[in-house]
Every structure is written in structure tokens, then in C-alpha cells.
Amino acid sequence: AIRLTILALVIGFVGFWGQGQLSIVTPLAVLRGVTQGGGLEVLLYDPFSLLVWIAAIAGFVLWGRGLFCGWLCPFGALQEFAHHLGRRLGLPQWQPPRSLGRALLWTGPAALAVLVLTSFLAPQHTETVAEIEPFKTAITMHFDRPWPYLLWAGGWLAVSMVWFKGFCRSICPLGALMRLSGLLRLRKWIPRRVQCGSPCQLCKVRCNYAAIDPKGQIRYSECFQCLDCVKIHDDPKLCVPLILAARQRSRAA
Q1: How many C-beta neighbours within 10 Å does residue 150 have?
Q2: Cα–Cα distances in angstroms (integers) from residue 78 to residues 3, 71, 167, in the given order
Q3: What pairs with residue 157 in β-bridges?
Q4: Number of helices (H) and strands (E), helices first, in the chain?
Q5: How many whole angstroms separate alpha carbon 2 and alpha carbon 5?
Q6: Distance (Å, whole) CA 248 – CA 118
Q7: CA distance 213 to 207
């Protein structure tokens, strides 16, 4: 309930009111400004978004990509609410097979590479290609756009009803950049036990992002830090190693 309340505030305040939905267009403009001798004035055009960027960059160092992707992205929050709506409607949940899921992780970097090349080779088309992000339609324009854009943005929200945050976990070029920036993370801060992965697989099974490997370790580049695994880890009624340890103490007593 606390998480959903925060995400609702992110949609309303950061997204619709503050227009703080970050976009891949900004880092592309910065990259061109740095490499082609231009200035960085583009960062000053939107002070509110600049504050969100500062928070996201601080998050890279402290926690990885999860602060922005999991908590501060308005479109990501919309997708999460769409997924909860899908559960209320009784729709099936789809989790891609492991091989397909790993392959889909490369679609975001591919989209990012295309955008970088476009920004240098055909900069006049950069904003057109950047429409691969549905953020402008859903957040900036409040869905007030021609029907092809509405189909793209609404389609991804519909997909999220059965595939948890499918856009974020596949083709999002900004997410691909966030994955790279997450390499700045200074520590592995999500707690793990030696029993995580062997024999206990509960966190891995419960992870909606498939960000926990079979050995129980967190893949921080794919982790959106929803904290579900932290909740399981700290709960003596959910964490299997804690439950087994409590039973052993009871039998010994």
C-alpha cells in the first residue's frame, strides 16, 4: 500500500503536474553538445526534470538504476498500476521463458544504439525516432495525440496488464541507459543469505522482474528495487531459512 501510494504521487506530481518524465532525448542532446562543442543549456530548459535527473544520478551511485526505474518513472508507475488492474480483472500473467527474457533485454540497447546513431547522422529525425518512448504521449501530452501514438502508448499499458512492466524490461532505450549507468553503484545493498538460491528459491520465484539468478544473487542491472525480496528476506513468516531455523529452535527446546 505504501509503494502504490508513492507511485500514485509520482504519476500525479512528478508526471502530470511537474512534467518530470525523463526521456532519452535529454542525454542524446547532452552527448551531442559535449562532442560537437555545443553547450549544456538544454539541461536548464526544464529545472524540474533536472532535479529528477540529479536524483536518478545519485541513485546510480547508491543503489543502481532502481531509484528512477522503480520509483520515479511516471510511465513505469502507470505500467505497474495497469498490471494490478490486470490482476483485478483476472487476466493471466505472462513471464517469458528464460531464453526469450534474456534475448528481450537486448532490444533496449539496440534501440539506444539506433537513437545515438540517428542523433549524429540524421539529427533532424532524432525526435521522430525517439517516439519509440511512449512517455510524451502518455505523460507530456496526457494522451491527447493522433491515434497511432495512442495505440503505441496504450498498447504497452495493455501489455503490462499481463506482462509486468513489459516496456521497461524490453525496448525502453532510457532503461538501457539506466542499466549502463547502474554500473556506478558502489555496493551490493540488497541483503542475501547463503541459503538464497540453494535450497531456497522463493525470492527468485516471486521476483516480477526476473532479476534474481538461480544462485540467489541480485542482477542489479535488471533490478527495479521494488523491495519485495527484501520484505521476504526480513519476514520470519515468509523467509524459508528463517522458518526452518525457527522450527529447529522449537524442536531443540
Answers
A1: 16
A2: 13, 11, 11
A3: none
A4: 14, 0
A5: 5
A6: 62
A7: 10
pLDDT in tens, 173-200: 999 999 988 888 988 999 999 999 888 9
Write out the three cell numbers for 213: 539468478
Contact 221, 214 (CB under 8 A): no
Residue 210 and residue 198: Cα distance in Å, rounded? 17
Residues in the chain: 253
CA neighbor of 77 nearest in space, from 180, 181, 168, 173: 168
Q: What angle do CA 166, 172, 175 make, to 5 degrees?
A: 105
DSSP for 106-152, written as a single string: THHHHHHHHHHHHHHH-GGGHHHHGGGS-HIIIIISTT-S-HHHHHH
Q: Could you tell me the three cell numbers for 52?
A: 529528477
Can you give the pTM of this predicted structure?
A: 0.91
Report the 10 Å Cβ neighbour count for 72: 22
Angle at 179 between CA 19 and CA 168, to 5 degrees: 55
